[in-house]
Amino acid sequence: MKVWRFLGLILLGGLVGGVISIVFNIANGFHFVTLKLENNQVMMTITFITLLIILLLFIYSLWIQRKALVCKQYIYQNKVDSDTDLLEKEGEQLFWQVGMLMYGQYTVLFIYCFILVLGNASDRFLWYIPFVVFVTSLSVLPYNFFVRKYDQRFPKVGEKQYTEKVLAIMDEGERHITLLSMYKTYSINISLLIIGIIVLGCYSISSQSNQSVGMFILIVLFIYNAFAYMLKVRNFYKI
Q1: Which sequence spans correspond to the domains of the chain?
Q2: Which of 66-75, 120-129, 176-185, 200-209 has the weakest average pLDDT?
Q3: Distance of CA 98 to CAs 65, 112, 147, 148, Å?
Q4: Please, which pLDDT band fits residue 234 given cuts at 50, 70 and 90?
Q5: What is the C-alpha to C-alpha distance for residues 100 and 108, in angstroms, rounded to an integer?
Q6: DSSP class of residue 124?
Q7: CB of 120 within 8 A of CB of 36?
Q8: What is the dihedral of CA 195, 197, 199, 203, to 10 degrees?
Q9: Average pLDDT taken over every residue of the chain
Q10: Which residue has the higher pLDDT, 36 or 88?
Q11: What is each CA distance from 199 to 103, 119, 193, in whole angstroms?
């Protein structure tokens, strides 16, 4: 099973690499970004659509939060009910769904920024980004209050030893899944940072576009992610 999975990943990687190579050949290497967002009406339309999507996600998130809190309240009031286990699982699913919606709003924001960069938007539209960031930040603010309402054992945002306290309130199964997922994410992030640094360096040289700021940020992130983890593990075994 693992062999077929490994071969499948190799095949998928080769397919994606082949598609990227074909696109680059057709588009004459890295010199493919010719779009120019100069029209104020187009920019307003893109911004409006982005804000609308963020608003819809926000409203849906509030609805899911309400369902999760109602579910949690019912569990507290009916602890001997035979359906308690099912309701508890449903409540946990709703809880994590709210978190996914929050990150979905940030994803929409980042895609919006990417569209502006891809379209070489004029600097007179620069103020659009802080405005959308401000709206997004306001829309995700209720999530912090929801977490504490759902489970008062959750530490406050910015509290000391936040990660340790969150892990402490989990049972053994939840802690195992969380740590396993975090380690897999950590490994993938390291790989993506390496690929990102190499690709950005090649793009900078090929397009004669100075990307030193972007490369510096990626290198700092790589050093922090790689060595911070390694040093903490090393200190654990230190005599």
Answers
A1: 42-169, 171-238
A2: 120-129
A3: 7, 21, 10, 13
A4: confident
A5: 12
A6: G
A7: yes
A8: 170
A9: 78
A10: 88
A11: 26, 20, 10
Phi and psi (nearest 5°) for 228? -65, -45
pLDDT given at position 92: 80
Provide CB contacts within 8 A for 210, sequence distance 6+: 204
- Are 123 and 107 in contact by the 8 Å Cβ rule? The answer is no
Token pair belonging to 37:
């967002």
Task: Report CA Rg, the chain.
Answer: 23
pTM of the predicted model as reported, rounded to 2 decimal places: 0.73
Q: What percent of the chain has pLDDT over 70?
A: 80
Q: What is the pLDDT of residue 52?
A: 92
Closest CA to 135 of 166, 97, 101, 108: 108
**How far, in Å, CA of 166 to CA of 189, rounded?**
22
SS percent in the chain: helix, strand, coil, step 5: 80, 0, 20
Say which DSSP state 91 is in: H
